[in-house]
Amino acid sequence: MSKMYDVIQELCRRNKTDVTKMCRALGIPRSTLSELATGRTRQLSLKHAQPIADYFGVTLGQLAGAEPLDEATDAIRDEPVAAYENLTRYLTEQDKEDIVTLIRLRAELNRGRR
What we know:
- It is a single chain.
- This protein is mainly alpha-helical.
- It has seven helices and no strands.
- The protein has helices spanning 3-14, 19-26, 30-38, 46-56, 60-64, 79-88, 93-112.
- The longest helix has 20 residues, at 93-112.
- The protein is elongated, with a radius of gyration of 17 Å.
């Protein structure tokens, strides 16, 4: 098992989640972390490491085990909020407008059901 995987497990423990839920929230294949866990890979690519570091609010150095974890990482993350924050970084302004429109339409439909 890699040092990075140990750190990810510790961050999950501190944040009352597990690796599978974290992967789901971030859209990272669970198999990517399984490869890390079994030692077939030693580190994650930046493509996968950066979203995980952002999700837990740590640096890449902390995620890799090169720097100690702060006590500040003990704060429990709200998984839907964390997933939304991560997702919105990749959305265009048009995507965001479309989401707002869909929410408004759903609200109108819900009001019509009362």
